[in-house]
From TrEMBL, chain A:
<feature type="domain" description="Acyl-CoA oxidase/dehydrogenase middle">
    <location>
        <begin position="120"/>
        <end position="212"/>
    </location>
</feature>
<feature type="domain" description="Acyl-CoA dehydrogenase/oxidase C-terminal">
    <location>
        <begin position="226"/>
        <end position="371"/>
    </location>
</feature>
<dbReference type="InterPro" id="IPR046373">
    <property type="entry name" value="Acyl-CoA_Oxase/DH_mid-dom_sf"/>
</dbReference>
<dbReference type="Pfam" id="PF02771">
    <property type="entry name" value="Acyl-CoA_dh_N"/>
</dbReference>
<dbReference type="Pfam" id="PF00441">
    <property type="entry name" value="Acyl-CoA_dh_1"/>
</dbReference>
<comment type="similarity">
    <text>Belongs to the acyl-CoA dehydrogenase family.</text>
</comment>
<keyword id="KW-0560">Oxidoreductase</keyword>
<keyword id="KW-0285">Flavoprotein</keyword>
<dbReference type="InterPro" id="IPR052161">
    <property type="entry name" value="Mycobact_Acyl-CoA_DH"/>
</dbReference>
<feature type="domain" description="Acyl-CoA dehydrogenase/oxidase N-terminal">
    <location>
        <begin position="6"/>
        <end position="116"/>
    </location>
</feature>
<dbReference type="InterPro" id="IPR006091">
    <property type="entry name" value="Acyl-CoA_Oxase/DH_mid-dom"/>
</dbReference>
<protein>
    <submittedName>
        <fullName>Acyl-CoA dehydrogenase</fullName>
    </submittedName>
</protein>
<dbReference type="InterPro" id="IPR009100">
    <property type="entry name" value="AcylCoA_DH/oxidase_NM_dom_sf"/>
</dbReference>
<dbReference type="InterPro" id="IPR013786">
    <property type="entry name" value="AcylCoA_DH/ox_N"/>
</dbReference>
<dbReference type="Pfam" id="PF02770">
    <property type="entry name" value="Acyl-CoA_dh_M"/>
</dbReference>
<dbReference type="InterPro" id="IPR036250">
    <property type="entry name" value="AcylCo_DH-like_C"/>
</dbReference>
<dbReference type="InterPro" id="IPR037069">
    <property type="entry name" value="AcylCoA_DH/ox_N_sf"/>
</dbReference>
Length: 377, 290
């Protein structure tokens, strides 16, 4: 067990830290959360800066340890979050890199890395959320194209996306996991309609996408026809692996700030509140070690994050909600003021136990795939 | 940063598990339950010969020259096996009390208001005057009670090794629950196929794995705040884990024959040891206030 970093890793960290110190002061001001075109421009601009400095794609090209250092240092420096580039950099990119043809990699990966294209995720449907394999969006083969009809929901960044990683049913007669294909859909294709969905957190964070006889070239299929479920599992393992590592660093910063605020407003002397903060400190220290453990395991097994991702995701999503509920106790009456720090975060944290596989789905995954219990009902 | 067990550590863990399986298997465990208060001196000497107590002594002094990570792996196995005796106190006395390192001397220590294994020990560290025996909730840990707390702030190593034992229980009760859920049938199928039971088992694993990452990391850094955090998570993983395991066992879990209650009771005893949760919480509060 070794928690120290190699000289090469430390050198990477020092170089990145130095670059962040010069790059961040020149950044434009952060756009308001409901101005999507401005958010797109901001996020793509940041990605372009990373690309020019040689840090684009640390998310998928390099060792899991370098990826962890990248997430840790960018978060520590207060660098912009991956934002609208989330799907491209953390899902679609790694999936195309792992499963795409040479031509597909050459076509789609450079624009993602250079900050020229935003991707969104067309997985969930109104009738296929947690039960993703029951999706019904149909794709018929017509010559060199698929003709796609159906609808998707909870599609983050759909309004400003150029491409969508789309799951469609290409064989309605096959067992449900076996008739699915993974397509790259251009969002400006004829027949695509996007309707933003307002969330409980206020601004529209995602959208419904309606697909009416949209023609998608067969050459846009990643992986074999009807093999999309397996391709998707590759995507999801990235989603649950290291995607949240930077957020743990951010949560520890929030916790330290909460302790400071509690000492300033006198609530630190409340033993119940102090105990809640202390328990969260223990929790987030452990979650950071769990990230390091999972990353080390991933590196030893060839880079793909393993089942430990579900263990982490379960624990982290609840800890994050606990963190902002405790923040509300520190804030007192200010916890009802949307203009206060941490209050909007308390709202958005509610998504964490639902998005990327609900906690209930994650528990079933842990029980059946890790612990080997019989298939549930 | 390669935060996983290396080959030597994997071999150490396998070796200790094999040794404990041989000299303290289930039959020995149940025999010990039936003879409360009696410390098996032959077993103690076997542990001593295997280096259990001298593990962290330098090789020049007859020890194994191991560090905290090795000690944590060994005490995790002791926790899994429900190994009885004042293991932590004797381990910590290895360099100070003659005979402790090799299992010839049994050493216990005053710990807050309690002393474990007072009658069986050869040496008591601390002031145990006026100690009164109590009817211990754990049949494998005889306890004496003092009129007041008579020990200073706990040694962080004692806190860490206690956390390691709790981790052993957390891992073991997860295995026991999963094993039972796979084989016990109700409504014509294994109970492990029911989501209510699956999700209890999943939470057992999640708590144990989170505690494991914290305990192992604390062993590497030896930072008192890391140790405090690990302790809080390990106590939770052991106590809640044993309770959930008991629940998965249903009516069987409430019987004396099932081993689950032994894990729960021992976890309760350990949770009071080495400053309990209060010391760890205060230590962590200090780190947070920095």
């Amino acid at each position: 067990m070794d928690l120290s970093y190699t000289p090469q890793e430390e050198e990477f960290r020092a170089r990145l830290r130095a670059w962040l110190a010069t790059a961040l002061p020149g950044l434009p001001a952060k756009p308001p959360p409901d101005d999507w075109p401005a958010r797109r421009a901001y996020d793509l601009g940041w990605q372009r800066m990373l690309y020019d400095a040689g840090y684009a794609g640390v998310h998928w090209d390099s060792s899991p340890v370098l990826r962890l250092i990248f997430l840790e240092e960018t978060e520590r420096a207060g660098a912009p979050y991956v934002g609208a580039n989330f799907v491209g950099l953390l899902h679609a990119g790694p999936t195309i890199a792992a499963e795409g043809t040479a031509g597909q990699r050459a076509r789609w990966l450079p624009p993602i890395l250079r900050g020229e294209q935003v991707w969104c995720q067309g997985f969930s449907e109104p009738g296929a959320g947690s039960d993703l394999a029951s999706l019904r969006t149909r794709a018929w083969r017509d010559g060199d194209c698929y003709v796609v009809t159906g609808s998707k929901i909870w599609t983050s960044h759909a309004e400003v996306a150029d491409w969508c990683e789309l799951l469609v049913r290409t064989d309605p007669d096959a067992p449900r996991h076996r008739g699915i294909s993974w397509l790259a859909l251009p969002m400006d294709a004829e027949g695509v309609t996007v309707r933003p969905l307002r969330t409980l957190a206020g601004p529209a964070e995602f959208a419904e996408v309606f697909l009416d006889e949209v023609r998608v070239p067969v050459a846009h299929r990643v992986g074999e026809e009807n093999d999309g479920w397996r391709v998707t599992q590759v995507t999801l393992s990235f989603e649950r692996g290291t995607a949240f590592a930077g957020e743990v660093v951010a949560c520890r910063r929030v916790l330290a700030a909460l302790a400071r605020a509690a000492r300033e407003n006198g609530r630190w002397d409340d033993p119940v509140l102090r105990r809640a903060l202390v328990r969260l400190e223990a929790e987030f220290r452990a979650l950071w070690r769990l990230v390091q453990w999972n990353v080390s395991e991933a590196e030893a097994s060839g880079g793909v994050p393993g089942a430990g991702g579900s263990v982490f995701k379960l624990r982290y999503s609840h800890a994050r909600q606990e963190l902002y509920d405790t923040a509300a106790d520190v804030l007192g009456a200010d916890a009802l003021d949307l203009d206060r720090p941490w209050v909007p975060d308390r709202l958005s944290a509610l998504a964490y136990t639902i998005a990327a596989g609900t906690s209930q789905i994650q528990r079933s995954i842990v029980a059946e795939r890790i612990l080997g219990l019989p298939r549930g009902r | 940063m390669r935060f996983r067990l290396d080959d030597d550590q994997l071999a150490l863990r396998a070796g200790v598990r094999e040794l404990l399986g041989r000299c303290f298997g289930r039959e020995r465990l149940r025999a010990a339950v039936d003879a409360p208060g009696r410390l098996d001196r032959a077993l103690w000497r076997t542990l001593g010969a295997a280096g259990f107590f001298s593990l962290r002594l330098p090789e020049a002094d007859g020890g194994a020259g191991g560090g905290l990570p090795e000690a944590v792996l060994v005490f995790e196995e002791a926790g899994r096996a429900l190994l009885p005796g004042p293991l932590v106190a004797t381990h910590l006395a290895a360099d100070a009390v003659p005979g402790a390192a090799h299992g010839e001397t049994v050493v216990t220590a005053v710990d807050g208001e309690l002393v474990e294994w007072l009658d069986a020990a050869d040496t008591v560290r601390g002031d145990a005057r006026d100690a009164v025996p109590l009817r211990s909730v754990d049949p494998l840990t005889p306890l004496h009670r003092l009129p007041e707390s008579r020990s200073p702030a706990p040694d962080p190593v004692a806190v860490l090794l206690t956390a390691a034992e709790q981790l052993g229980t957390a891992g073991r009760v997860c295995e026991l629950a999963v094993g039972y859920a796979r084989t016990r049938e109700q409504f014509g199928r294994p109970i492990g196929a029911f989501q209510a039971v699956q999700h209890l088992c999943a939470e057992l694993l999640v708590r144990a794995e989170t505690a494991r990452a914290a305990v192992y990391a604390a062993a590497v850094t030896a930072d008192p705040a890391d140790i405090a955090a690990a302790r809080l998570l390990a106590d939770e993983a052991a106590v809640r884990g044993a309770r959930d395991c008991l629940q998965v066992h249903g009516g069987m879990g409430f019987t004396w024959e099932a081993d689950v209650h032994l894990h729960l009771k021992r976890a309760w005893v350990r949770a009071r040891r080495a400053g309990g949760s209060a010391w760890s919480e205060e230590r962590l509060a200090a780190a947070l206030a920095d």
